[in-house]
Design goal:
8-stranded parallel barrel; alpha/beta; globular; binds manganese (II) ion; TIM Barrel
Length: 316
């Protein structure tokens, strides 16, 4: 299994790591290296490279026994009116240029996935967005970046809202429609558990839809209550839905990166990360003990009482 985590989580509780309050990218990577079971890291572009030497970052990752899973795009406030759908052509081109740079950086660091999350492509008011125009702009920009790097995997992480009231593409089906319209073989989907809960999707069903279309690239795992992107520890709120999600991950032989997109603020991030990995492995082992065939039989029976006995088995 490949496990990765959110680099900015490792800024919390700095007193547990060193006297330094302002940790640079290498400090954060070094701290991540202490998390038991962590194999990969993902960096944000350009955020984690500003004023940092990329070669130093590269050796720091190797020195800590880690590998780069990929790069995630973080567009700054300049793009408040949209990234790939920005009405200002110069800004839209700049967003495209930054995305292409991120792919180059990913290659340099030995990663293979560029994750795209467009926090600002969306709308807050009726008549604020021309949906036809914005959709064409988005498809066109995604074709440009995916075609420029055919050897790089690009992945779209949808989120229903936050910071916009409506993200332009905010659910599993419209993401799969977008991917289909872009038409690039190197373009797929990243499923974020909290985002799916916010959208009132059933995460295992979204996983099924993405796998059915052969577009499943990455997981962002966490938990939350469904109103905001809470970034809580895996299985802390929706334990059974997490179990069902991991079951379907096994069923489709998912071998991509499992990234914990959590926001520890009071917790020791090293312990929090190790706990998420332990939780994933424990739930995964539980399914293995029952056996995939037995699980399939259980599902075929459509007997909710038998399913509840699974919970009892976990507790006992
Ligand atoms: Mn995420």
């Amino acid at each position: 299994m490949k496990f990765s985590s959110r680099i900015n989580s490792f800024r919390s509780r700095p007193e547990l790591f060193s006297a330094k309050n302002n940790m640079d990218t290498c400090d954060l990577i070094t701290r991540m290296g202490q998390a038991e079971g962590l194999t990969h890291i993902e960096l944000n572009y350009p955020e984690h490279f500003i004023g940092q030497d990329k070669s130093v970052i590269k050796s720091c990752i190797a020195d800590n026994g880690l590998k780069v899973g990929g790069i995630a795009l973080r567009y700054n406030k300049e793009f408040i009116n949209g990234e790939f759908t920005n009405p200002d052509e110069a800004l839209r081109n700049k967003a495209i240029r930054i995305t292409l740079e991120a792919a180059e950086m990913c290659k340099f660091l030995g990663g293979n996935t560029v994750t795209l999350w467009f926090g600002y492509d969306g709308y807050d008011y009726p008549f604020q967005q021309d949906y036809f125009r914005a959709y064409e702009l988005l498809v066109n920009a995604l074709q440009q970046v995916t075609q420029a790097h055919p050897d790089m995997q690009f992945s779209f992480e949808y989120k229903p809202y936050e910071p916009r009231t409506f993200s332009f593409i905010g659910d599993v089906s419209s993401t799969l429609m977008l991917i289909d319209d872009v038409g690039s073989p190197n373009f797929g989907i990243t499923l974020d558990f909290c985002h799916m809960i916010m959208k009132k999707e059933n995460p295992a069903f979204s996983l099924f839809l993405s796998a059915r279309k052969n577009k499943l690239v990455g997981f962002h795992l966490n938990d939350g209550y469904g109103h905001f992107d809470d970034g809580l520890m895996l299985g802390s709120v929706h334990l059974m839905q997490t179990l069902e999600y991991i079951y379907y991950a096994k069923r489709v032989n998912f071998d991509g990166l499992v990234y914990f997109d959590t926001f520890p603020s009071r917790e020791d991030p090293v312990a929090e990360c190790a706990q998420n990995i332990r939780m994933y492995k424990t739930l995964s082992n539980f399914i293995d003990q029952i056996g995939l065939e037995e699980m399939e039989r259980l599902i075929r029976d459509q007997d909710a009482i038998k399913v509840q006995s699974l919970v009892l088995k976990m507790i006992n």
